[in-house]
Amino acid sequence: MKSKIHEYKKDNYYRVSKNFTIYLALLLCLFASKMVAQEDRKEQINERKEQINERKEQIKERKEQIKEKRKEVVAKYVDNSFESKAKAIADKIENITKEEKATLKSEVEAVNVQLENGSITKEQADAKKKDLAQARATIIENRIAVAQEELKDLVQQKVNGKIADSKTTDSSTVRIGKRLVLTYENDSVKRKKHYEYRERRTTSQFVFALGLNNVVTDGSVENSDFKFAGSRFYEWGFSYNSRLFKNDNLLHLKYGASVMYNDLRPTENRVFAVNGNQTTLQTSTIDLKSSRFRNVYLVAPLHLEFDFTKKKEKDGKTYFRTHERLRFGIGGYAGVRIKSKQKTEYKIDDIDYDEKAKGDFNASNFIYGLSTYLGYGETSLYLKYDLNPIFQDNVVKQNNISLGVRFDFN
């Protein structure tokens, strides 16, 4: 009986151990499968994250491409326009003047320090300041001459039709100056333009003029001693245009500052020679290839301008624009002579010579005269006449006269 009980317990223990082993194995398999599933899930999540990051990078690259494309469109149709290029050159000229004036100011302050310390006398200080001012004026002229050539080339391209005016673009927003904002909403159905005007009674312009130059002798330019086609004038500067009446666009006051270059090319192989207080033309002993005399002036022009640009109305508001229709200006100018020089070119024994002579040549130190212009938009026919003689003490009085084209880049 005891042996049967013992066998029953042994058999029962065996079954329990077997079942426990089976359950343990099942539990381990379930745990292992769950771990494998979690690892697979992690791999799927990481793979999905990589796909999302890759998509983000693609979107970012696409945005950069759109941004670059938009810049290219704006650069092609706006920044390469005639007005934008002219404004860039105007800014360059203005920056040149500011830089050199700042340098001259620091140099003059250094001279003042030397004067205060007693290392130089007042006469020496004045002489140094004069030399520094003349040196800076020469540097300004040379640097501006380069920009002036760029502007002349730009104007020629404009005349030849190689450069177009400002065009609208597919850019979402383009600002032209400070008064006009163009916004485009592009889709497959429509395009809208929204204009935002900022009314101002005073506007500014960059002025550039060029043309023919000669002299009036005894009230006539006939039988002139100077070449008609070879003698030229140039002028560049900045002006302000103020509307005189609040609710009328006809009358404007135009004022500013300009630099004038008056060139004269004598005929018959002649040059200017100084004889005491007289400056006269004399035949050169050398066969000249070219002879040119130039006076440079800093002037303040003042004109009463009639602008026939019509007013515009939008959303119940009235806007006055300028430089869009017929314009007529009449006034004058006054200023001082900055420098005078004579340049001659000749050839001896196959060697080219280029000589420059600088001095006052008895030229008038002050300039004043009358000027007028008539044109459409930003382009005008320009006429100016000096009331003062070119040479202050000459027996025969000769007055400078110029006729050319004037551009007022608004």
TrEMBL record:
Q: Which UniProt keywords apply?
A: Coiled coil
Q: Which domain of life is it from?
A: Bacteria
Q: Which residues form a coiled coil?
A: 35-76, 130-157
Q: What is this protein called?
A: Outer membrane protein beta-barrel domain-containing protein
Supply the source organism's classification. Bacteria, Pseudomonadati, Bacteroidota, Flavobacteriia, Flavobacteriales
